[in-house]
Structure formats: C-alpha cells, structure tokens
Amino acid sequence: MRLGIFGGTFDPVHNGHLLLAEQCREQCRLDQVWFVPAGVPPHKLACTLASGKARAEMLELAVAGHDSLRVDRRELDRDDPCYTVETLAGIKAEDPTRELFFLMGADSLAEFPTWREPRRIVELAQLAVVNRGGAAAVDPAPVQVMLGESLAARIHFVAISGVDFSSSEVRRRIAEHKSVRFMVPRAVECYIQTHGLYRQ
Predict the structure, then answer these.
(1) Which is deepest, 31, 111, 152, 187, by most CB within 10 Å?
(2) Where residue 49 sits, what CATH number does that domain have?
(3) Does the residue 200 lie in any domain?
(4) Interacting residues of 9 by C-beta distance below 8 A, sequence separation 6+
(5) In whole angstroms, what separates CA 55 from the centre of its chain?
C-alpha cells in the first residue's frame, strides 16, 4: 500500500488542502491519503484557534464520500507537542509493509533541516513536495546536501495549479464577515457558521 500522510493544523481545512492531497495521490500513485490534524503543533503552540475536535470534524466533512481520503486523529489524543518523526514511526510500526509518503508544501522544505530528526523522517517516508503554480520555486539543494545522495533521491516534486489562499486568510475573512464560499467545502462552511468559529 502506498500511503500519503498529510499533517497540519487544518484550522480550517480548505479546498487548497484537498487539491494538494488529490494531486499528490494522483501524481505519486498513492492508494490513500490520511489527513493527520495536529494536536499540539510544536511551531504553533499559541496559534490554533479551533479545538482539535472541531478541526477533525471539519476534515471528516471535507473528505466524506472520498474513499481514498481519510482522517487519522492519533495526534489529537496527545497533550504534548507532536513531531512528524514520531507520527510516521507509529504509522510504520502498525504495518511495516506500507510505503509511506509525507506530503508537504515547498515552502516547508526550506525549514525542513530544523525539524526533529529530518534524516529519520526521510528514512521512514518519501517526501512529496508540492510546488504551487505561480509560486517561486524553492531551491532543494541545501536539503539534498544535508540528506546525502541516497536519501535525497526520496524527494519527489509535485506541481499543482496555484491556490492563492490559506487557512489564515479564511479565518480573517470570517472574522470580517466576508464570504468564504468556494474557498472551503460547503459542509465545512456550514459547520463554521453553526459553531460560530473564527468570529472576533
């Protein structure tokens, strides 16, 4: 099984996340993509605005009806910061026959050497690095040098059409009482309205 792991705060999930997952699934020939919402993200300890439960429920609504996409809540059960290397090791230990791919935006690649155990991450999972159309290309050379030739070969680049909005923009527009229609799935939009999320 070729399994994509897509971690993040997803606060909230938006259509750009879904497009990234689908394009990685298609271009990397993945059988499934798992969205893994972060419980206590190490780099955003004070930034998450919606509860883990709400973020996971919005993800479930967003992927409903898509058999190749699912939500994995393992990081939400932890009270301490969650690190990618630990999550990947846990998924790999559950079924060593899985071939793992870790999905990440190209902008994260520049910071990758500062992550916990980056070489171990690439040993556990190949990297599917997404370059959005229209965005400036990120130079992979520093990461490739750090990893060495054999591990650098486990980095794959995926190109998708530009989606020029983010979760922070979605939150800002909601706080300003502006429309987010077609930025997030309709079911997620309704969930946000029903639960009064991201209002100032």
Answers:
(1) 152
(2) 3.40.50.620
(3) no
(4) 37, 38, 41, 44, 47, 48, 55, 167
(5) 13
With vertex at residue 108, the alpha carbon angle to CA 102 and CA 110, rounded to the nearest 5 degrees, is 120
Task: Determine the structural domain holding residue 166 and report its residue range.
Answer: 2-195
Residue 151 lies in a domain: yes
Which parts of the chain have pLDDT scores under 70? 40-48, 133-136, 162-163
Amino acid at 142: P
Q: What pLDDT is stored for residue 190 in this prediction?
A: 98
Q: How far apart are CA 11 and CA 131, in angstroms?
A: 21
Taking the complete model, does pTM exceed 0.90, yes or no? yes
- Torsion from C-alpha of 155, 67, 86, 97, nearest 10 degrees: -70
Provide the domain count of the chain.
1
Q: Which residue stretches of 28-175 are H helix?
A: 52-63, 84-94, 106-109, 118-124, 141-147, 149-152, 167-175
